[in-house]
Design a protein that fits this description.
Helix content: over 70%
Largest sheet: none
Order of helices and strands: HHHHHH
Shape: globular
Strand content: under 5%
Structural class: mainly alpha
Length: about 160
């Protein structure tokens, strides 16, 4: 039960760090914030049998898509934290190290590159976007920040685990 709570808190904390990074990027680099409503739209079309779109922005809006998208965003962060815990185990959770967290964080970029971006119409690894290389770098950096967030959140919540 402790590891479950640890995973939820670690994933939530790391996702919050990623969201803070997005806010900083917007302020410092004038980069638009991610629109998790579009993620919600993509997910909400799946039960209707639509898994791939030429452009998710052109797909019909779905009631509650913003809520669905933000919920999926945080649940995904928690799932990625569970993967980290499956690899590192309770010992890692008691003594978190940045290397494993960063490796898992960077590894999670496979999800947008191979699943979300193609499904939403951006192509594999943003290949159909106006500036694919810039989009790829942005995704890699964001997922590296998520990895650092995994480490920071794990370190902050490690006291939940009994020795």
């Amino acid at each position: 039960m402790e590891l479950l709570a640890f995973g939820i808190l670690t994933g939530t904390g790391a996702t919050m760090v990623m969201d803070l990074w997005a806010l900083a990027r917007r302020r410092l680099l004038a980069t638009p914030l991610p629109d998790y409503g579009l993620v919600g739209r993509w997910l909400a079309h799946m039960p209707r049998g639509r898994f791939r779109h030429d452009s998710i922005k052109a797909a019909p809006p779905v009631r509650g898509e913003r809520f669905v998208g933000w919920t999926a965003h945080y649940l995904t962060g928690i799932a990625f934290a569970a993967i980290l815990l499956a690899i590192g185990g309770a010992d890692w959770a008691r003594q978190p190290t940045p290397g494993l967290a960063l490796a898992v964080g960077i590894g999670t970029v496979a999800a947008p590159f191979l699943l979300m971006q193609p499904g939403m119409g951006a192509g594999i690894a943003a290949s159909r976007t106006p500036r694919p290389a810039a989009a790829r770098i942005q995704s890699l950096v964001t997922h590296a920040v998520f990895g650092l967030g995994l480490y920071a959140a794990a370190w902050a919540t490690r006291s939940l685990l009994t020795p």
